[in-house]
## 1
Amino acid sequence: MKYQIPNSQDEILPNKLGLTNLSDINLAEFEGFLKAEIMLSEALTTRTKFNISYILKIHKLALSQLYNFAGKLRDVNISKGGFPFAAARFLGDNMQHFELEILNKLPKIYTDKQELIADIARVHAELLLIHPFREGNGRTARILANLMSRKAGYGSLKFERIGGAEFENYILVIQAATDNEYTLMEKFITLIFPD
């Protein structure tokens, strides 16, 4: 489902490559996110700190070949399926709060798998609720979740298990986090956590 943007008719975003076909854009985005995840995974160490700068870096690495807005907070209000995301004018404050209250409190090392799952769930849900970018929010959040898991010595989460009915449930789980309710997201992350 595409984003709804007030007073906008564009389904094809202006891009640096001059692509006008949605399937070509989707492929370029896919390749960019794949490359970004590989690069960041190779550079990942126990000292890697997940913060606003790191999240912006994920997005920039993934989409800078395609969009001028890569690695920058969005300047338009967006919604999806009637669910409005954080207003563009408050994104800086929302991201600062996210960093101070959630990202800065992540431990450097996890000794408990359930604690890691709980933190991935909270980070994933909150980042998706903020939706800081014009495009690529879900993919950025999934890469961050994978990197959190890998940093702790586990593999990638099994996001490919989310399809059809599971995706609709995933959306409801994200929306439940608007009230700081992360239990459903923890259960969801547990289901897709690497074996």
## 2
Amino acid sequence: DYDRYISIARIPTLRFVVSNTTEAGIVFHAEDRFEEKLNITFPAKLTQFLYARYEEFHGDPEKGLVMLPVELIDDNGIELHKDVLKYIDLWKLPEGFRSWVEDACIFTSTLVDRIVTGWVRDEKERNAIYEELGYVDNLLDTAEPFALWVIESKKDISKEWPMDRALAGKEGMNVIFTDNQKPYKQRKVRILNGAHTSFVLASYLKGNDFVNQSMKDPIIRDFMMHTIHDEVIPTLTLPKQDLEDFANAVVDRFNNPFIQHSLLAISLNSVSKWRARCLPSLLGYVDKYHRLPEHLTFSIAALMAFYSSDEKGEGCLKGHRGSDVYDIKDDAAVLDFFASECRKDTRTFVHDYLSREDFHGQDLTKIDGLEDRVCEYLDAIRRDGMQKTLETYFG
């Protein structure tokens, strides 16, 4: 509903814009058009939104907006800002609008860390909570107790966005305002998110459906622990004890019996997630030890096995786990690649995937031994299935 969307830009009291479009969301697409109501990218839609506000209030500097992106890419606010400026140039929008975006608007870079699994599905549990609350809450969801939001901004927004003081009678939410969120982000993305992305696809193909269920699976739990402690932590620069403490807290969070975190929910956009969450650790490990990290390398083969389907659904591919059918959801270019390539011989399939610089930011076939090792793992998965392959290499 484009017209309704644009009408929100004209609300005088609007101040904050929060986005969560996944790692694949903050991108520039040169075919997007200013007059188009169904542009592909979020930055294009945001540029249209900001321009409508600029026109409505005649460039009033008091009507600028604060962008709070939470996508898990490095410098998410900086990248979002860059893409908006690219669209201003592409669409030849007025110089006054560019100045308003630069001077009146604030693009923060943020990091969020909390597992939120969504709607409380059990009706009995919902009704018990409603009774305790005294009203029906149609936005009720399930989340872990842990929560962290780190907000990096050149201008101090803590007084008008006082989330750290938001809970009456308590210390407030765990929100940190800083001029450098990188140490927090690196720790979280590489350990927590990297652990997720490295094991969930293999775990799902092995027969598990949830994270806490995976943690009760000895092979998957062991796989994850070796990934974190042997392959990820050695590549990070923060004090080792801090990293070990955070990793132990992550394991406790994964074991939370009340959080039913679906592996399929985590699988969304896994190609861009693997690039952001796992590739830096793999490259750091190779650079430091001059050999491949076996668990992170296997995660590539697991991803390729999970994505292997040429059966198209509505905006997805249809994968098969025994008699179960699951949705494979990613960018159209990724889905098109797997649909056309996955039936080829393993060597061709792996070479073509690893060499896709648009997927990985570089040609991964140039990493010594990686192509051969991924072929070995994927051949085993295709031949023996995920369960037996994991037992063979990591049991």
